[in-house]
C-alpha cells in the first residue's frame, strides 16, 4: 500500500491501484492488500494538483462479497470534502480565510 501511495506522490499510478466505485473517474483510488488472512484497503485521492490525500485505511471485515461497506464509503466522501476544503485554503491562490 505504501508503494502505491509513493507512486501517486511521484505522479505515477500503481498497477495495484484501481478506481473506487461511486466516484467519477480515476480521482479516488483504492489499494487492496491481504495479510495473514485479512483484507485491508487504503483509499486516496489524486484530484488535486501536486497533492495526494489519503482519505481512509481500514480492514475489510464484511463477509458479504467484495463491495466496500456503505459506512466506509460515507466516511471517504466526508473526508474527500474536507480534503477539497483544505486544498482550496492552502494551495489555491487568491482565497483568504
Outline of this structure?
By secondary structure, the protein is an alpha+beta fold.
Helix content class: 25-40%
Question: What structural category characterises the helix and strand content?
Answer: alpha+beta
Q: Rg, please?
A: 14 Å
Would you report the number of β strands?
A: 4
Our measurement of the CA-to-CA distance between the termini, rounded to an integer number of angstroms, reads 35 Å
Question: How much of the sequence is in beta strands?
Answer: 25-35%
Q: How many alpha or pi helices?
A: 2
Please tell me what the overall shape is.
globular
Major pleated sheet: 4 strands, antiparallel
Q: How are the strands ordered across the major sheet? A: 1-2-3-4
Given as residue ranges, the uncertain stretches (5+ residues, pLDDT < 50) are none
- Give, in order, the helices and strands: HEEEEH
Report mean pLDDT, rounded to a whole number: 92
Structural description of this entry:
With 97 residues, the chain is of the alpha+beta class. 31% of the residues lie in helices and 28% in strands. The chain is built from 2 helices and 4 strands, in the order αββββα. The protein has helices at 2-9, 70-91, and strands at residues 17-19, 28-35, 38-45, 53-60. The chain has a 4-stranded antiparallel beta sheet. Strand 3 (38-45) and strand 4 form a beta hairpin. The longest helix has 22 residues, at 70-91. The radius of gyration is 14 Å and the shape is globular. The mean pLDDT is 92.
Amino acid at each position: 500500500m505504501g508503494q502505491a501511495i509513493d507512486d501517486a506522490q511521484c505522479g505515477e499510478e500503481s498497477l495495484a491501484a484501481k478506481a473506487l466505485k461511486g466516484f467519477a473517474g480515476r480521482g479516488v483510488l483504492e489499494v487492496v492488500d491481504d495479510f495473514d488472512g485479512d483484507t485491508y484497503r487504503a483509499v486516496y485521492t489524486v484530484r488535486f494538483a501536486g497533492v495526494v490525500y489519503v482519505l481512509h485505511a481500514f480492514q475489510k471485515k464484511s463477509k458479504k462479497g467484495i463491495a466496500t461497506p456503505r459506512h466506509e464509503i460515507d466516511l471517504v466522501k466526508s473526508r474527500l470534502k474536507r480534503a477539497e476544503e483544505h486544498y482550496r485554503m492552502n494551495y489555491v491562490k487568491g482565497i483568504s480565510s
